[in-house]
């Protein structure tokens, strides 16, 4: 528990164990927030506009692997309540969080710091994180935090809405790819996990990272980023800052969608930089396949002159390799690639 950045960071200089090597640290050149990542209006409901929205999502998913959505149907009140309850969680006194702290890899609901393997880290990450499953709700809500008192009620409502939004976006993606309606609806997106990240103000943002460069292991990720900047996406070997937009969600393509789409969609690499003035809290909802779900390139997407880029695998096989490779984006899919 003393390892949590939020429990010791005040008035300290950056410890050596948080300093990234020169090639991977952000450095003094501050990458500005930018409007390059497409913002897609989901409020357009008519048939004509639906086609347009599908095209916008596909284009953004091919070019960036990232987009933001507005008019997405999740209420502003629920988004604000959710962000506030997460901030309140991290502000609770240590004794109210102690039971949740764990360095055990497989503990389903846990508060931890840096990565899932603190002792194995080459460099520690400047973040604390609360992580737990959200589906099926009746079963997993019992292991969620009990404080703040409204945590369970608010996060239950939020996770249902976020999953609905994710499913809607997956339907638009399957339409754009030409897959059967509901292709992603069942096992491929059955598991829902939330990861709440808390990045305290940092004494030297040029030397460290909140999260190092990675691509999400998920099918699709829906991020509530709040109004503090910190997320950067790698595009054409350049980092692009993702502008925090009020009431928007950031959506990104995970490794599993890269596989199912046979590389038509891009699972983009991203990272989180820190800042020296304000704490930043974000919440990522990962829509994941169930552990035994078979993931493979969709057969209808393989043209006659093409071959599948990946062999079929169970999601848990992928996860095992992802963790072993420490989230390294090039190596995570390597054992499943078909060359030829
Ligand atoms: C993640 C992630 C981005 C952020 O949790 O995988 O990339 O801005 N988070 O917190
Ligand atoms: Ni991520």
From TrEMBL:
<keyword id="KW-0560">Oxidoreductase</keyword>
<keyword id="KW-0479">Metal-binding</keyword>
<protein>
    <recommendedName>
        <fullName>Fe2OG dioxygenase domain-containing protein</fullName>
    </recommendedName>
</protein>
<keyword id="KW-0223">Dioxygenase</keyword>
<comment type="similarity">
    <text>Belongs to the iron/ascorbate-dependent oxidoreductase family.</text>
</comment>
<dbReference type="GO" id="GO:0046872">
    <property type="term" value="F:metal ion binding"/>
</dbReference>
<dbReference type="InterPro" id="IPR044861">
    <property type="entry name" value="IPNS-like_FE2OG_OXY"/>
</dbReference>
<dbReference type="GO" id="GO:0051213">
    <property type="term" value="F:dioxygenase activity"/>
</dbReference>
<dbReference type="Pfam" id="PF14226">
    <property type="entry name" value="DIOX_N"/>
</dbReference>
<feature type="domain" description="Fe2OG dioxygenase">
    <location>
        <begin position="188"/>
        <end position="289"/>
    </location>
</feature>
<dbReference type="Pfam" id="PF03171">
    <property type="entry name" value="2OG-FeII_Oxy"/>
</dbReference>
<dbReference type="InterPro" id="IPR026992">
    <property type="entry name" value="DIOX_N"/>
</dbReference>
<dbReference type="GO" id="GO:0002229">
    <property type="term" value="P:defense response to oomycetes"/>
</dbReference>
<dbReference type="InterPro" id="IPR050295">
    <property type="entry name" value="Plant_2OG-oxidoreductases"/>
</dbReference>
<dbReference type="InterPro" id="IPR027443">
    <property type="entry name" value="IPNS-like_sf"/>
</dbReference>
<keyword id="KW-0408">Iron</keyword>
<dbReference type="InterPro" id="IPR005123">
    <property type="entry name" value="Oxoglu/Fe-dep_dioxygenase_dom"/>
</dbReference>
């Amino acid at each position: 528990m003393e390892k949590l950045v939020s429990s010791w960071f005040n008035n300290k200089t950056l410890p050596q164990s948080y300093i990234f090597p020169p090639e991977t640290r952000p450095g003094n050149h501050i990458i500005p927030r930018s409007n390059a990542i497409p913002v897609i209006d989901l409020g357009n409901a008519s048939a004509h506009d639906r086609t347009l929205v599908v095209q916008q999502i596909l284009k953004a998913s091919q070019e960036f692997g990232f987009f933001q959505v507005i008019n997405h149907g999740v209420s502003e009140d629920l988004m604000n309540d959710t962000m506030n309850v997460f901030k309140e969680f991290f502000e609770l006194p240590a004794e109210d969080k102690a039971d949740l702290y764990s360095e055990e890899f497989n503990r389903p609901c846990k508060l931890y710091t840096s990565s899932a393997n603190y002792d194995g880290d080459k460099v520690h990450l400047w973040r604390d994180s609360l992580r737990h499953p959200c589906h099926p709700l009746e079963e997993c809500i019992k292991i969620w935090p009990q404080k703040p008192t409204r945590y369970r009620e608010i996060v239950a409502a939020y996770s249902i809405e976020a999953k609905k939004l994710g499913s809607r976006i997956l339907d638009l993606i399957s339409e754009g790819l030409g897959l059967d309606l509901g292709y992603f609806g069942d096992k491929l997106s059955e598991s829902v996990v939330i990861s709440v990240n808390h990045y305290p103000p940092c004494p030297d943002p040029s030397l460290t990272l909140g999260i190092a460069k990675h691509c999400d292991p998920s099918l699709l990720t829906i991020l509530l980023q709040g109004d503090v900047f910190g997320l950067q996406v790698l595009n054409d070997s350049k980092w692009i800052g993702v502008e925090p937009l009020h009431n928007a969600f950031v959506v990104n393509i995970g490794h599993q969608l890269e596989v199912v789409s046979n590389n038509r969609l891009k699972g983009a690499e991203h990272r989180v930089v820190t800042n020296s003035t304000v704490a930043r809290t974000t919440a990522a909802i990962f829509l994941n396949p169930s552990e035994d779900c078979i993931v493979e390139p969709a057969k209808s997407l393989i043209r006659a002159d093409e071959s599948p880029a990946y062999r079929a695998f169970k999601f848990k096989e992928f996860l095992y390799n992802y963790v072993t490779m420490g989230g390294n984006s090039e190596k995570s899919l390597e054992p499943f690639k078909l060359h030829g």
